[in-house]
Please model this.
Amino acid sequence: MDIVSAIFGQSAAMLAGISRYILPLAALLIVVRCIRSMLREHYEPETWAYLYLTGGQMIPLRHWECILGRAKSVDAQIDDPAVERLHTCLIRDATGLWQVYNLGKGETYVNGELVPTGGALIQDADVLSLGPVSARFVDLTEEERASLLKYRHAPGRQVRPGVTLLLLTCFQILLLLQQLVYNPDAGLGVAIAFGEVTAIQWVYFIVLRASGQTGFEPELLAFFLSSVGMSMAASKTPGDMTKYIILFAVSVGLYVFLCLWIRDLKRVKSVRLYAFIAAVGLLAVTLVLAPERNGAHSWIEIGSFTIQPSEFVKVLYIYAGAATLDRLFVNRNLIFYIGFSAACVGLLALMGDFGTALVFFVTFLVISFMRSGSFATVFLAVAGAVLGVMLVVTVKPHVVARFQTWGHVWDDIYGNGFQQVRAMSAAASGGLFGQGSGHGWLVDIYAAETDMVFAVISEELGLITALCCVASILAMAMFVVKNASSGRSSYFVIAAAATMSMMLVQVILNVYGTMDILPFTGVTFPFASVGGSSLIACWMLLAFVKGSDIRANASFAVKRPERFSGGIGVEEPPVDDGYDQTSYDGEDYPDDGYYDGDGYYDGDDGGYYDQGRRA
Model:
């Protein structure tokens, strides 16, 4: 308050009061702009290579991993009765090399040589034969691929990420203003912390923007949620903001590192076994070394720091559990993953961390279904889980107490319902616009800034801002679903889907548990809950979401091709198939359209121009 009073004098309280109504509007604009950009933008699928069948049919290969066969669900359908439903798969690595693997009972040949069990290399101009059907494989160079990656956006105005980031900066300034006015313990340290977080996000944006990177919406939503989390940390422990800044910088740094690391899927697979071992090892060490708190062994104390290893195990679990296409057809690989999942969930149950165990179990169901496509596997796992829960309820009295309290918290407001009763009361007192950041009383309740952070946000920042936090996670989940069908690799698709499943379950358990709609499980809200382990893990998990982004130059998973200098025209690689493709003239079509691989869509008149071919 002293800092604000020195600058604004008597107007400080009035400015803070006005900011209470502006801040939810800023939060709403930030989330809406990100949703518009992520979910409304239309872009053509990427093309990595072509198959030219005898007779002139051209099949684009739009994934790093493509299944070829007769089934309608495959990536490249070959309608011939001699071809198996799932006959062959083609897999591209990060260096651009392609491998071919036989899947069905039918035989596959490359240049007349039978493809062995371990696969075979296939190169540009090689002839691929699936039974009696032959096709010439045409691999695209970086320059040829760049010519196909132009104007992949929706007709109309684009949502500028720089404007959204500017709105986010204003949102952070308003949070800081309220902290300095309403929180008597906030001072220069809190102001410096907000300034450094803002500086980190602007440096990140400017550096990547200068390198040609696009598509910043997942990071902007993460910065938004992290800003809310920083406000909660300032309300709870304003003297520890230096620690928060260090953890935030480490989180963003590890996020960038993991984004670059998973670019090479061979490298990912080479250390997958170590990730398995590290995940189980961390949980085992926690079970042995962590002291019991509220019936759970979750935290390990190292000096002045406390670490929750289960948060880092989330990253290792998804990193090791997601599989590439060549491993999806190996039953032994799935069985090993089921055993690994059982070990993780079992150790979490022994630790007494049943909320996290539930999060892991749901994530396991998502990954196992996406890897096997079998509902039987999921039903079997659910049946086993039900038996496990029945066993746990009989041996863990504090779990029984939570189930008994569920729906009856107002019957025991000074006992088992103490936290939730006060959380709901505080959330209601915040109304739509909140009491002001740093002006709430719920933060003084045990674990309010972690397990009940939704109620704290509702009290201090208002229901509108709290719902914007929920909408941020939902938007990222819908974004992952939107990109799934066009994903470059099954690894990115499975990892991103598992990540958002994990975060969605956490949000549901945190919000509904706080409001007594579900049993209270003590699970954090991604990015927004105060805690270094949770913050670092959430940012690292965001790398899997970023890897699934298929927009041009938006994902770190792909090396950005050089900009094509031939206007908006597309010129396919020449191939001796009896056809010559006419190229587009950059002046013939307006710039607000997009090319979808078969023709050009004009955003103004809705016209669709066929690319045209001539003999």
Observations:
- The chain has two domains: 2-40+159-547, 49-146.
